[in-house]
Amino acid sequence: MSKETFFIYKIYSYIIVSILDEFNFCINLKQKLYLNEIENDKILNKISIVEVMKESNDNMKTNLNKKVGVNGSGQRNCINSPDFIK
Predict the structure, then answer these.
(1) The predicted structure's pLDDT at residue 78
(2) How far is the C-alpha of 21 from the C-alpha of 14, rounded, in Å?
(3) Rounded Cα distance, 47 and 44, in Å
(4) Could you tell me the end-to-end alpha-carbon distance of the chain, in angstroms, rounded to an integer?
């Protein structure tokens, strides 16, 4: 093999390796972006679940206060409480 041929092979191999590296970089970047999207979706789902649970908890407290009643001191009236009997 002549020096010129060897040099041409060397250049082609360098170009091919560079293209493959760039291709792998793009694939890795795409995978990272996809994984970030999945993580963001998980975080948003967790936030949504917490918000729903908080809203549900607030609604339960409100409904309980409506059913049982709350006296002026902020304590719930119990059936056996003298305030309830009045």
Answers:
(1) 55
(2) 10
(3) 5
(4) 110
How is residue 77 written in tokens? 């009236």
Residue 41 to residue 49: CA distance in whole angstroms? 12
44 φ/ψ sector (left φ>0, alpha ψ -120 to 50, else beta): alpha
Neighbours of 59 (CB within 10 A): 10
19 vs 84, higher pLDDT: 19
Is the model's pTM score more than 0.85?
Answer: no
Amino acid identity for residue 14 in this structure: Y
pLDDT tens sequence across 44-82: 777 666 666 777 667 666 665 555 555 555 555 555 555
Handedness of CA 55, 61, 65, 68 (dihedral sign): positive
d(CA 24, CA 17) in angstroms, rounded, equals 10
| Secondary structure (3-state) at 76 | strand
